[in-house]
Specification:
There is one protein chain. The protein has 118 residues and is an alpha/beta fold. It contains three helices and four strands, in the order αβαβαββ. A four-stranded mixed sheet has the order 1-2-3-4, covered by helices on one side. The radius of gyration is 15 Å and the shape is elongated. The model has no long low-confidence stretch (mean pLDDT 91).
Length: 118
Amino acid sequence: KYFKHNDMADLEDVLESIRMADAKMGQKFELNRRFIAIEGCYTNTGEIPPLPKIIELKEKYKYRLIMDESISFGTLGATGRGCSEHFNIPIENIDILTSSMSNAMGTIGGFCVGSDVV
């Protein structure tokens, strides 16, 4: 399901509706393999997501967070480490972080990092 761009009330409504549908069907997950996917800086608008609120919702609803830092890597934060550094959020709070190296680094390739649990 999709949520409205940078609209945290809508994101919470979507997550709650999924939780309610699961409860109605009697589903209870010990391990939730559901993800919230965002960009660290949106390519089309240059807007930055409200990462602290997204982290709060992912923890409340037990989701995992995938964040693409292709635009924010090298441009956001005191040392260019991206959206997480911009908001002073430990990288461990982001489950999967991806980035292309073609934007800020001017080369080819990319990377995907996360904990070994994921």
